Transposase IS204/IS1001/IS1096/IS1165 DDE domain-containing protein
Amino acid sequence: MRRYRCRGCSHVWRQDTTKDAGPRAKLPRAAVRWALVGLVVAHLPVARVAEALAVSWHTANDAVLTEGQRVLIDDPARFDAVVVIGVDEHVWRHTRRGDRCVTVIIDLTPIRDGIGPARLLDMVAGRSKQVFKTWLAARTKAWRDTVEVVAMDGFTGFKTATVEELPGATAVMDPFHVVRLAGDALDRCRRRVQQDLHRHRGRAGDPLYRARRTLHTGTDLLTDKQRIRLEALFAVDEHAAVEATWGIY
């Protein structure tokens, strides 16, 4: 930092660095911005960011959290034009203490309109009806009135919170969980037929057990070998129920 001294009055002042770094900051603004972009866009871990900036992990993490709060979370325009949202839980803590899950809310409007990828809106500690209901209640009434669709999994707490706080919105199940339910039904049917035919659970030599993963593969992704395996599987009359359920899946 440059220092200047007046030859007339001997007054000393320093170079103004407020535009380069905040008060008592350990990293300049450009470095913090680079770290945030690297973490969010390039998916770099905090350890790599800290190594590149030659600082400790905690210094880099604190800087990224502070900048992310200022640029992303505190941005008043991030809720504009949101009409379709998605809500789901995510297990982020694998310890006995504290909330294991966070409730994730994303903006699905760009997906519905075909103009871009989904956008993260917020993450709230906990997974319950009250957590999602409190988050919705914290938004303005004008914003809640514009929401048209809420996509979610089969958790009734999310649906109840949606009905209470967004009476004008339609609650739907997202495609991932719809396919997951269909896949679970296919597995249950396969196990039931396996038990009825062989009186035991699936073993390595059982055709139904060998094809358990092939049954979950999309038809456009099947190899020639997998197609032959399924054709042989469905050629057995006793496997008709599995074939019907697979067709629905």
About this structure: The chain has a mean pLDDT of 91. Residues 3-73 form one domain.
